[in-house]
Amino acid sequence: MQEATKKKPWSAWLMAAAYFLAGINHFRVPEFYLPLIPDYLGNKILLNNLSGVAEVVLALSLINARSRKWAAWGIIVMLLAFVPAHIWMIQKNGCLDPNGLCVPVWVAWVRLLIVHPLLLWWAYRCCKTTTTTL
Asked: Which of 4, 35, 80, 127 has the most crowded CB, counting CB atoms within 10 A?
């Protein structure tokens, strides 16, 4: 007997809400994100706007079960593209702007080595929309 079970979409909906709000925030408070972008990447405003658009589009794509798998893979690619920002923060000893974003350097390491892999894992788990057992 073959039984197919669909994962509950609450995880995808939660991820969609988080990325949608983060994406909108790129436009509401760009001054928070601009210092996170390494200087060597160039046009920070353009990169911030592209990140915001990507997060919103991918978040909306997570809602539809048909596009969820591809949206989750898009989030994985996007998260990998954000790794230089995490490394940049570590190189700057956790303080990107003396008047703004400063965290202990160990927090930057935790974000890179624990939080970021967990976000990647969560997106990967969302890629699997259906499981089948025999």
From this structure: 35
